[in-house]
Amino acid sequence: DTGSAAAIPINEVDIAYVTPVTIGTPPQTLMLDLDTGSSDLWVFSSLTPSNQVRGQEIYSPTKSSTSKLLSGHTWSIRYGDGSGSRGTVYTDNFTIGGLEVKSQAVQAALEVSSSFTQEQSLDGLVGLGFSALNTVRPSSQLTFFDNARPNLDEEVFTADLKYHATGSYDFGFIDSKKYAGNITYTAVQQSPGYWTHSLSGYSVGSGAFQASQISGISDTGTTLVYLPTAIVTAYYRQVQGAQNSQYYGGYVFPCSSTLPTFTFGIEGARFTIPASYINYTRISPTSTTCYGGLQSSSGLGINIFGDVALKAAFVVFSGTNPPRIGFAIK
Ligand SMILES: CC[C@H](C)[C@H](NC(=O)C[C@H](O)[C@H](CC1CCCCC1)NC(=O)CCNC(=O)[C@H](Cc1ccccc1)NC(=O)N1CCC(N)CC1)C(=O)NCc1cnc(C)nc1N
C-alpha cells in the first residue's frame, strides 16, 4: 500500500503544516499536524469541553460505527513549547491520503491547553516519532506509521514541506519526481524515540564549511531551527543590527537587513536554507523588527532541525532496521 496527502501551512509564516485525515465510519475529516517529534495521535473530540474548542473540527466516536473504547487507557502529553493535552483512547479506522489503518489508536482529548484552543486551524496531531514515546497508559500504542508499515510497499514516509506553499507527505514510496540528484542517507539513533541524527557541519553564506558532528532531531512539528549558540552567533554576526533579545526570547534584526544563507551537511551532501526562510516573521504586524528562523538551542538540551530546515530538502524517514533518514535537493 501507499498514501499521499497535502501538507498545508496553517498561516502566512508556516508556523505549522496540517494534513487532512479521515477517522471512523462514515469518515470524519480532521486537519492534523504530522509531527515526527512526538508519537501520540490525538484529536479534538466530542469529549473536549466546549469552552476549550474554538473552531476546530472534532472527532465524535459515538457517530462512528467502527469506534471502540480502549477501556481503562488514558494519555497525557506535554510539548516543548509548554503546551499539552490529555484524554482517553478509542480505536477506529484512520486514513491518510488513501492509506488506511484499521483500529488505529485515536486519542480523544478531554482537555487541551490554551495554545491549542487558540489555534483553530489545528485539530490535533499525528505523532510520527518512534512508538516508544507514546504516552498512552497502561499500555502504550503504536503510531500510524508503525501500524501501516507491514502493508507498505516500502517502509518509509517522506516529507516535502514547502516555503509559503502546500507540500506533501507520502507513505510507502519515494516519489522521484519530488527531488533532484541522489538521496543522502545517514544513521538514526531511535532512542529515546525522536528521529535523532547528526549533521556533518555547516556554513554561513559563502563562508567555508565547518566540519563538525552536530546531533539533533528532525522534527516536522517544530517551526524553527535550534542549533548550538556558537553556530547561531556566527550566523547573526553577519547580520547588520542583529541582537539576541531577552525581551523577544531570541535573535531579532531589522527586517531590512540582508541575511546570509545557511548550509548544513548530511554526510558529504550540502543543503542550503535560503535567507528568506530565516527571515521568519515581523515581531508584530507593523514592526520593522524581525525574528530569526535560526535560534539557539541552549536551554533546550537538544538541537532541533525544524520546518525552516526541513522545507529546504526532500526528507525520507526510513523505518528499515536499522532506521535511517535521507535528504535530497528539490
Ligand atoms: C512525549 C512528548 C513529546 C515527545 C514532546 N515532543 C515535542 O515537544 C516536540 C514536538 O515536535 C512539538 C510539536 C508541536 C507542539 C505544539 C503544537 C504543534 C506541534 N514541538 C514543540 O513543542 C516545539 C516547540 N514549539 C514550536 O515550535 C511551536 C509549534 C506550534 C505550531 C503551531 C501552533 C502552535 C505551536 N511553534 C511556535 O510556538 N511558534 C511561535 C513562536 C515563533 N517564534 C515560532 C513558532 C516532548 O519532547 N516533550 C518533552 C517536553 C516536555 N515539557 C517541556 C517543557 N519540554 C519538553 N521537551
Q: What proportion of the residues form beta strands (DSSP E)?
A: over 45%
How big is the Rg?
Answer: 20 Å
Protein structure class: mainly beta
Bound molecules: the ligand CC[C@H](C)[C@H](NC(=O)C[C@H](O)[C@H](CC1CCCCC1)NC(=O)CCNC(=O)[C@H](Cc1ccccc1)NC(=O)N1CCC(N)CC1)C(=O)NCc1cnc(C)nc1N
Helical fraction equals under 10%
Calculate the terminal CA-CA distance, rounded to whole Å.
Answer: 25 Å
Largest sheet descriptor = 7 strands, mixed
Care to count the β-strands? 24
Number of helices: 5
What is the averaged pLDDT score?
98
Shape: globular
Output the strand order for the largest sheet: 18-17-12-13-22-14-21
Uncertain runs: none
Order of helices and strands: EEEEEEEHEHEEEEEEHEEEEHEEEEHEE
Q: What are the key terms here?
A:
single chain, 330 residues, mainly beta, seven-stranded mixed β-sheet, six-stranded mixed β-barrel, 5 helices, 8% helix, globular, binds ligand 0GQ
